Amino acid sequence: MLRPGQPLPLFGFFRRLLGQDRAFRQAIATVIGRTPDNVRLYHLAFTHSSVVRQQGDTARHQSNERLEFLGDAVLGAVVAEYLFRKFPYEQEGFLTELRSRIVNRESLNGLALKIGLDKLVQLDPAQGRAARSRSVNGNALEALVGAIYLDQGYKAARKFVLTRLIKPFIDVKSLIETTANFKSKLIEWAQRQGKTIRYDLTGQPRSGGVMEFSATVMLDDEPVATGMGLSKKQAEQLAAERALAALGV
Amino acid sequence: MLRPGQPLPLFGFFRRLLGQDRAFRQAIATVIGRTPDNVRLYHLAFTHSSVVRQQGDTARHQSNERLEFLGDAVLGAVVAEYLFRKFPYEQEGFLTELRSRIVNRESLNGLALKIGLDKLVQLDPAQGRAARSRSVNGNALEALVGAIYLDQGYKAARKFVLTRLIKPFIDVKSLIETTANFKSKLIEWAQRQGKTIRYDLTGQPRSGGVMEFSATVMLDDEPVATGMGLSKKQAEQLAAERALAALGV
Fold first, then answer.
1. Cβ(B76)–Cβ(B99) below 8 Å
2. Catalytic residue, candidates A57, A81, A92, A142
3. Which of residues 114-143 of A touch B (CB under 8 A)?
4. H helical segments located in A33-91
5. What is the pLDDT of residues B104-144, one digit of tens each?
6. CA dist., res. B73 & res. B61, Å (int)
7. pLDDT by residue (tens digit) across B139-177?
8. Structural domains in chain A?
9. Cα dihedral sign for A9, A15, A17, A23?
């Protein structure tokens, strides 16, 4: 099969692999701002479960889902500290709400695209489009934070989150404004209509020691819309947002 | 009012304060296994909001609630890493479920008592008993983790969590067993009765980018009990637990 002068195919394979590896290492260094040590971790961070599922369920620990679990936790801690220091006079509920607006799926997907992670994520090409439309990139971003944590430690992961994600791309002020918006918009509308707004709140314990709150917007004592959340504020916020939609405001 | 020889009251006040401070510093050192640097942080960690509320709502940032927010996040990250390393072949759902069993209210309250935090927590004496019956000690433990993180850094907080809480007091194996118990107990019971068990699962997106799952236990296609949770496993587990109660098993 081999013509004279043609390199042995195995060598070609390794050369291609090494070249790819060098390019990947370089891409990671550009994204995280430092040279990765254990490159395997970063490969794992960008391996969507759809790629691994082809190889059967036993291989699922070779996808990025476990790293995503870890990275989500590290990201949560870093953002918690950032907000804790930035808002020394705000209460726990405010910090919780604001953090959830920074680390929610939509926000993480946006951040992942901004730092170009979509070019690094490996999907099963067969179901690529369906999978990509959801939260693939945001999950890969969480997994990347987990990989940096394991590879370089907490300080490096913290620095990545603060200097490459939060500070360049998160406009905390406008997040606070939109947080306040739904409830105040609803109240202003009701005042113009000469109606009253009140929230009916209930809380239910959920497994894992979590409380879940449900808030129902009452317009002149008639229920309009209900929102749920892990804090009263979150539940009311969502209820107000839905009430505005239901009322066509 | 002063008799000769009696020390000036102001001196007595300061001396008492300094003595208390030395004792407090010593108590913290015993609990966390190292000398605290910024003692104010630890005072804050043990100040329940009931003490501060007497001073009006503007002082609420002087209670431990904000530190609790931070400590909860740091604790979550440390436990995530611990489980990630301990169970290299388990999937995300398993790790999430197990973590929630380690850091839930009940578990944290128990850990707090084991390391003697109840003796350090400051409550409003007027409503002491009511407040103490709930999650005061567990919250103080989270706040303490937050204080260590700010005072001594992530590594020290991690070491405290691992060497003073998890390793001495958490029996991961038995946690896993009780996790598996409800579902298998229900299935065994159904088999003895010649009936079939199946779970109807639905998922709903919640604000903050979280999915909440609802699982209904179907006994021969009749709904018996429903559980909710932030993972499918958690929802099924709770549903099974409730079904066992409803069926009187």
1. yes
2. A142
3. none
4. 39-45, 49-53, 65-86
5. 888 999 999 999 999 998 877 766 555 555 689 999 999 99
6. 18
7. 999 999 999 999 999 999 999 999 999 999 999 988 888
8. 23-170 (1.10.1520.10), 175-246 (3.30.160.20)
9. negative
Q: Residue A103 CA to chain centroid, in angstroms?
A: 5
**B200 carries an active-site annotation:** no
Q: Is A234 helix (H, G, I), strand (E, B) or coil?
A: helix
Q: What is the ipTM of this complex?
A: 0.72
Q: Is B72 labeled as catalytic in the residue annotation?
A: yes
> DSSP letter string over chain B?
-PPTTPPPHHHHHHHHHHHHHHHHHHHHHHHHSS--S-HHHHHHHTB-HHHHHTT-GGGGGGSTHHHHHHHHHHHHHHHHHHHHHH-TT--HHHHHHHHHHHHSHHHHHHHHHHTTGGGT-B--GGGHHHHHHTTHHHHHHHHHHHHHHHHH-HHHHHHHIIIIIIHHH--HHHHHHHHHHHHHHHHHHHHHHT--EEEEEEEEEETTTEEEEEEEEEETTEEEEEEEESSHHHHHHHHHHHHHHHHT-
Share of chain B above pLDDT 90, in %: 49
Question: How do residues A10-20 score in pLDDT, each as one tens digit?
Answer: 555 655 666 67
A34 DSSP assignment: S
For residue B1, pLDDT over 50 is answered with no
CB-based contact (8 Å) between B60 and chain A? yes
pLDDT digits (tens, 9 = 90+) for B32-45: 999 999 999 999 99
Residues 5-44 of A with CB under 8 A from B: none
Tokens for B46, please give them: 């043990």
- DSSP state for residue A47 in the 8-state scheme: B
